[in-house]
Specification:
This protein is mostly beta strands. 0% of the residues lie in helices and 51% in strands.
Length: 112
């Protein structure tokens, strides 16, 4: 069974950058489309970005397009999310996803 563990969250000032990582174990991410979601307390979880491993096609929500970038490292069995020009509204718990498997999330707080 695939297990996902996120890291890289933290406190950052508006305009700053963070890089989230998600390490998979128990299976290879090569066989899954992978994605990042986020959830603000009291709100529904929303999709942020995903990557199709078959052809490398990527998707970004309108709110992060041009600021975030998703990538995978097959050798490290990792999917990352590079986040730039962060805004207070990006504050959320970020979750890694592959098919029906989810990590426990990492908190990103954007505040001055």
């Amino acid at each position: 069974q695939l297990q996902l563990v996120e890291s890289g969250g933290g406190l950052v000032q508006p305009g700053g950058s963070l890089r989230l990582s998600c390490v998979a174990s128990g299976g290879s991410l090569d066989f899954y489309n992978v994605g990042w979601f986020r959830q603000i307390p009291g709100q529904e979880r929303e999709g942020v970005s995903c990557l199709a491993t078959s052809d490398g096609e990527t998707y970004y929500s309108d709110s992060v397009k041009g600021r975030f970038a998703i990538s995978t490292d097959n050798a490290k069995n990792t999917v990352s999310l590079e986040m730039n020009s962060l805004k207070p509204e990006d504050t959320a718990v970020y979750y890694c996803n592959a098919l029906t498997f989810w990590g426990k999330g990492t908190l990103v707080t954007v505040s001055s």
